[in-house]
Design a protein that fits this description.
324 residues; 16 helices
């Protein structure tokens, strides 16, 4: 399947079209919104379900098999936010706090982008290692910490580091992912079989609802682009391709399959809008939410959801063909 066919199939998938519908609802000023309790319930379902499935997959592999991918992921967790911060130094209009906040978001990961990638790759018969959820959880934390550390150099901190770290680890995304991993690992395939229909069959439909709501949220952030300037827009479009390629290369070098390396590339290219905003709001109150949320949710998220996922697969296929 060529690049155009893959991109068209991804763009016409139900989750992506639901996201586009959310954008349209905002554009025509519709009052469409998911009720907050339903949105929260869907978030919990997605996080816990991904964690459980990852834990089951992790229970079926040896430490020797996952050791190198975990090491590579940790390296990415430090390298990506450091690179983002370095690139952002070119944008003179940004404060150090804003640069660090953006770096924390791009060093962390997007659960929904990851989920959309897994579902899409499966739809085009590309297998992905089940334990990639473990790499998702691992990549989420160091990126935020490095971004906050870079931002606070030379600043008088108003919040202790211990409180910032606690906020990251106790946040909903990390807690549910880690808890789901533990549940899946301990119950294994036999235990998962009893709940498999709930967390597998229903999953794409629930994700579609979630992306409808995110389309509405992202649409309401698009107006912030005028305030952000061309430099930030260029960063939000170009940097994910750089970090995504780096993730694919690391995936290939650490022994992941074509689909696994592509998914690690998607993770590296994605930007957080769940865990990172909570931690940044606490640790960097001087940073502007309009800037880092516009970049991560308003620009990079739609880019990855529509083009980034198929592009990472094509890059992974190419690297595999040249024998990397």
């Amino acid at each position: 399947m060529d690049m155009l066919s893959i991109a068209v199939q991804n763009l016409t998938s139900a989750p992506v079209l639901a996201f586009a519908l959310g954008l349209l609802a905002t554009a025509i000023r519709s009052d469409l919104r998911l009720p907050e309790p339903i949105y929260q319930a869907i978030s919990i379902y997605l996080l816990l379900g991904i964690g459980i499935k990852g834990g089951v997959a992790l229970s079926e592999v040896s430490i020797a098999e996952v050791g190198l991918p975990i090491l590579g992921t940790l390296i990415l967790g430090v390298t990506v936010p450091a690179l983002a911060f370095a690139f952002l130094q070119l944008l003179k209009r940004l404060s150090n706090a804003d640069r660090g906040a953006i770096a924390a978001h791009y060093g962390s990961t997007s659960l929904v982008t990851f989920t959309a990638a897994i579902i899409f790759y499966e739809s085009v018969a590309v297998s992905v290692e089940g334990y990639l959820t473990t790499l998702l959880a691992i990549l989420e934390i160091p990126g935020i910490i490095v971004g906050l550390l870079l931002a606070t150099i030379g600043l008088k901190r108003s919040v202790p580091w211990s409180e910032s770290i606690r906020e990251i680890l106790a946040g909903r995304s990390i807690f549910l992912l880690a808890g789901g991993l533990a549940i899946g690992f301990l119950t294994g395939t036999t235990g998962f079989a009893r709940i498999e229909e709930f967390f597998v069959v229903l999953f794409p439909g629930v994700l579609t609802l979630f992306l409808l709501e995110l389309g509405i949220v992202a649409g309401r952030r698009l107006s912030d682009l005028k305030k952000s300037g061309f430099g930030l827009v260029a960063f939000a479009l170009l940097f994910p391709m750089v970090s995504g390629c780096l993730g694919v290369v690391v995936g290939q070098l650490t022994g992941l399959s074509v689909g696994g390396a592509a998914t690690l590339g998607v993770l590296s290219a994605s930007a957080s809008y769940i865990a990172a905003p909570a931690a940044v709001r606490l640790a960097l109150p001087e940073a502007s939410p309009g800037i880092y949320l516009t970049a991560s949710l308003g620009i990079t998220f739609p880019l990855n959801l529509t083009l980034g996922i198929p592009i990472m697969l094509q890059i992974s296929n190419y690297l595999e063909s040249v024998g990397l």
